[in-house]
Amino acid sequence: HTYGAVAMGAERLARRCGGVVRIVRIPLDADAAAATELVMSEVTDRTALIVIDQVTSATGREMPAGASSAAGRALGVPVLVDAAHAPGLFAEPLAGIDPDFWVGNLHKFACAPRGTAVLVASGSLAQRLNPLIDSWGAPYPFPERFDHQGTLDVTGYLAASASFETIEQRYGWDSARTYVKRLGDYAETIISAAMSEATGGDARVDVGMQVSALRLVRLPAPLATTLDDAADLRHCLSATAGVETGITTWRGQGFLRLSMHVYNTPEDYEDFAERVVPLIVELARGAQPGESPGRR
Predict the structure, then answer these.
(1) Same domain assignment for residues 163 and 208
(2) CA-CA-CA-CA dihedral for 283, 289, 290, 294, to nearest 10
(3) Most distant CA pair in the chain, distance
(4) pTM, rounded to two decimals
(5) What residues have CB less than 8 Å from 219, skipping those under 6 apart?
(6) What is the pLDDT of residue 123?
(7) Tens digits of per-residue pLDDT, 70-85?
(8) pLDDT tens track for 208-236
(9) Is 90 exceeded by the pLDDT of residue 149?
């Protein structure tokens, strides 16, 4: 479930420190209790850091970041929560979560400029955090050392509050989240039904801990079995049908990862079900095993 770049960072850190990355295999439909048990079953007296998503990117589901953080703290093991999708998606993204480190992006559901993120750190380890590049703020304690970095462009951070305020003023965040949840339910229902009817299989996906604004629909084989194939299919749909949608892969299975926000309407997903689902099925039927339709 882990985001690829986060896994790469963990591997690089392990190589530098002479450690080993242990990946927890969590079933897609695991509930909070089962997922927490699996995470903690891999923790030993040699575990130096637990990394867990709050919301996964590839599989569009929530993970038990709160329970895992509490269990890690009880054992004295630091916990890092990758909360890239959490700001804006949740009214209080840190409610019930007390990790050592929490990182959330503001350019996703919070609609701030790209590259704008929040780092929350607590405990003694916070003072061991340093920017990737030293500047005049280096002698300061955390978090001040991150705020004084020479030529750092702070435009995105200055605009972030305006992004939150704009959605609150125009829609109201509570209303926006309610709308997104209902739209997600509708979109998932009609697109998975269209895919199931066209393929004769069941395109519905049980993700165990569903989130409102990310939904999975199973793709027919042999589509998107690898990351490269998923990227090719995404580009193919963009060029052929004029749509932008997430295509993900997990353990060799391809998925549509639908997302929704206040700027989307039911008609967007009705159009997708009518025009794009048949195209996807046509590509799947014409593809040979191991072939990427986007490269034909």
Answers:
(1) no
(2) -10
(3) 63
(4) 0.92
(5) 195, 203, 247, 253, 254, 255, 256, 280, 284
(6) 85
(7) 999 999 999 999 999 9
(8) 999 999 999 999 999 999 999 999 999 99
(9) no
Q: Count of domains in the chain? A: 2
Task: Tell me the pLDDT tens digit for each residue of 50-71.
Answer: 999 999 999 999 999 999 999 9
pLDDT at 293: 62
Domain coverage including residue 62: 4-167
CB 1 within 8 A of CB 61: yes
Are 209 and 35 a contacting pair, CB within 8 Å? yes
Please report, rounded to a whole number, the percentage of residues in the chain having pLDDT higher than 90: 88
Q: Token digits for 211?
A: 């989130």
Percent of the chain with pLDDT over 70: 97
Nearby residues of 180 by Cβ (< 8 Å), 6 or more positions away: 212, 213, 260, 261, 262
- 119 and 102: one domain? yes
Indicate if 16 and 116 belong to the same structural domain. Answer: yes
Q: What is the CATH number of the domain that holds 289?
A: 3.90.1150.10
Nearest to 292 by CA among 242, 228, 235: 228
Sheet of 50-53: strands edge to edge? 50-53, 79-82, 101-105, 117-121
Q: Is 227 helix (H, G, I), strand (E, B) or coil?
A: helix
Residues sharing a CB contact under 8 Å with residue 154, sequence separation 6 or more, in sequence order = none
> In whole angstroms, how far apart are CA 199 and each of 106, 112, 139, 194, 285?
38, 39, 61, 9, 9
The runs of H, that is alpha helices, within 18-134 are 32-41, 65-75
Say if residue 13 is in the same domain as residue 151: yes
Does residue 247 sit in helix, strand or coil?
Answer: strand
DSSP code, position 129:
-
Return the structure tokens found at 2.
């882990």
Q: Please report the pLDDT score of residue 137 as a whole number.
A: 87
